[in-house]
Design goal:
By secondary structure, this protein is of the alpha/beta class. It has 9 helices and 12 strands. Helix 1 packs across helix 8. It is elongated, with a radius of gyration of 20 Å.
């Protein structure tokens, strides 16, 4: 049985992960952690989530639970996740990170730390999205430069980072398949007399509205035809389920940096 500590236990994602964990075989909760000063620190995590008393108090310090854990699951904030990973490395524990918004410097630190532990980091833990990643790579390799590429992502009005990590991962996969440098060809905004679209650019546009869980549309536009690939998340449960699947998988792997393509066995196919 894999024992897991969940960071951000009182948050939307952390709460869903804990709720679904009780009905997921092979993994159980051994600790729940929130930020320092959170009003629910000290409360029973089961009671706060309407699951009944679980006998696990929400702590504000990962170290209070980590010795009894096999893996840490983190869907919190990019700065906090880096600190949590350092703690996991210090205690020899595996980690799953579903947080987005990391800076280039933070990603460098994360990749360095992953050499000393087992880490799954993915901007989107959804099984469907990760299948879509694979499909987009295949389509881009097939269509080459004959089709224009546009990505549109939509999320709820409380999401802080833009574009979404998922949209950026899609753009990165497509750019790689087409042999383009995303830093040079990504276009995030169009306004006014911008002139004709260049052949190399990859448009990445953002929508923030209401309670949209997550929607990503990728358009390959050609002359006389276009292909559209759409993924819509109906609830956060698909992300939570993917995170649990990753947590069960990572504990038996060698030290290194992995993503959901590894977890699902999609690499090399």
């Amino acid at each position: 049985m894999v024992k897991a500590v969940v960071m951000g236990a009182a948050g939307k994602m952390g709460g869903r992960i804990i709720s679904l964990m009780s009905s997921t075989e092979g993994i159980e909760l051994c600790g729940a952690v929130e930020r320092v000063g959170h009003p629910l620190v000290g409360a029973d995590v089961g009671e706060t989530l309407g699951l009944g008393k679980r006998g696990i108090a929400i702590s504000d310090d990962l170290r209070s639970y980590i010795d009894g854990a096999d893996v840490v699951i983190d869907f919190t904030h990019h700065e906090a996740a880096v600190d949590h990973l350092k703690t996991a490395v210090d205690h020899g524990k595996a980690m799953v990170i579903g947080t987005t918004g990391f800076t280039a410097d933070e990603m460098e630190v994360i990749r360095d730390l992953a050499r000393s532990t087992r880490l799954v980091l993915a901007p989107n833990m959804s099984v469907g999205v990760n299948v879509m990643f694979k499909v987009l790579e295949t389509v881009a390799l097939t269509l080459k430069d004959e089709f224009d590429v546009e990505i549109v992502e939509a999320h709820h009005n409380m999401k802080k980072d833009a574009p979404s990590g998922t949209a950026m991962r899609m753009a990165d996969i497509i750019a790689g398949a087409l042999g383009r440098d995303l830093k040079k060809v990504a276009v995030y905004e169009r306004k006014g007399m911008i002139g004709a679209r260049t052949k190399e650019e990859i448009g990445i546009q953002t929508i923030r509205a209401g309670d949209i869980v997550g929607e990503h549309t990728v358009i390959f536009g050609g002359i006389g035809e276009r292909l559209e690939f759409i993924h819509r998340a109906h609830s956060r449960d698909n992300f939570a389920k993917g995170g649990l699947r990753a947590a069960k998988w990572i504990v038996s792997q060698r030290n290194g940096f992995y993503d959901m393509q590894d977890v699902l066995g999609l690499k090399g196919k």
